Amino acid sequence: MIIEARYNGPPGSGNGGWSAGVFATAVGDVTPADGNAGSAAATPGTVEVTLRRPPPLGVPLRVLPSADQPGRHEVHDPDGTLVAQVAPVAGFTPTVPAVDLATARAASADYPGFTGHPFPGCYVCGPEHPDGLRIFPGRLPDGRTAAPFRVPAEVRPETVWAALDCPGGWAVIGPGRPYVLGRIAVRVAALPRPGDECVVTGAATGGEGRKALVHSSLYALDGTLLAYARATWIALPTG
Question: Which end of the chain has fewer CB atoms surrounding its CB within 10 Å, N or C?
Answer without folding.
Answer: C
